Design the sequence.
């Protein structure tokens, strides 16, 4: 997995100087939002349903690679926190951001960062963490940065479900191929933040 991630990123991105903005190709990554500390993208060319061992698609599991590029303030903050925690900062003088692998469990209405990797300005992995736990999408209030990010990813997925299936390395099972669009788990999933919108309307 580590070698695959590094190879993918090295093909997609050129090396850049620390102070230079990272150019993320829009033919591969879709920009969702920017905050004072980072820019958030997801890979719409790779995201799709998890493939089971038998080669069929798991319609309950959506896997999405993402990128967040940092500004210099966030970079310094990450480095300082690593020092406080007595972690190695080797290579972190050229830290550029992080790469996350998201896994949406459409049946249980959760999202999990299954792998988070710090990446340098050549997009080589510096360190990674796989301790992320599933989080209920319904727990988001609608104001969090993560909530908007996840919401926009799921909206795009719902609008492009047929395309994701066509370009997938797996195939629909005989049973799933007979499903009507509205019966796909993806379309039954409430979007994060919907409850917050309802509460505002009712106030």
Sequence:
């Amino acid at each position: 997995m580590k070698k695959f991630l590094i190879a993918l990123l090295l093909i997609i991105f050129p090396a850049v100087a620390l102070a230079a903005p990272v150019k993320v190709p829009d033919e591969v990554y879709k920009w969702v939002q920017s905050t004072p500390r980072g820019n958030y993208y997801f890979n719409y060319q790779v995201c799709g349903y998890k493939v089971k061992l038998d080669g069929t698609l798991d319609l309950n599991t959506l896997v999405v690679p993402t990128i967040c590029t940092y500004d210099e303030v966030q970079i310094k903050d990450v480095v300082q926190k690593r020092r406080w925690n007595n972690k190695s900062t080797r290579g972190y003088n050229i830290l550029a951001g992080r790469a996350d692998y998201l896994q949406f469990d459409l049946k249980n209405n959760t999202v999990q960062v299954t792998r988070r990797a710090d990446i340098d300005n050549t997009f080589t992995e510096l360190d990674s963490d796989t301790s992320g736990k599933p989080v209920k999408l319904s727990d988001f209030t609608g104001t969090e940065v993560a909530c908007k990010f996840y919401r926009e990813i799921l909206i795009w997925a719902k609008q492009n479900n047929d395309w994701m299936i066509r370009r997938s390395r797996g195939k629909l099972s005989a049973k799933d191929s007979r499903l009507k669009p509205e019966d796909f788990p993806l379309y039954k999933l409430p979007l994060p933040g919907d409850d917050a919108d309802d509460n505002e309307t009712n106030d």
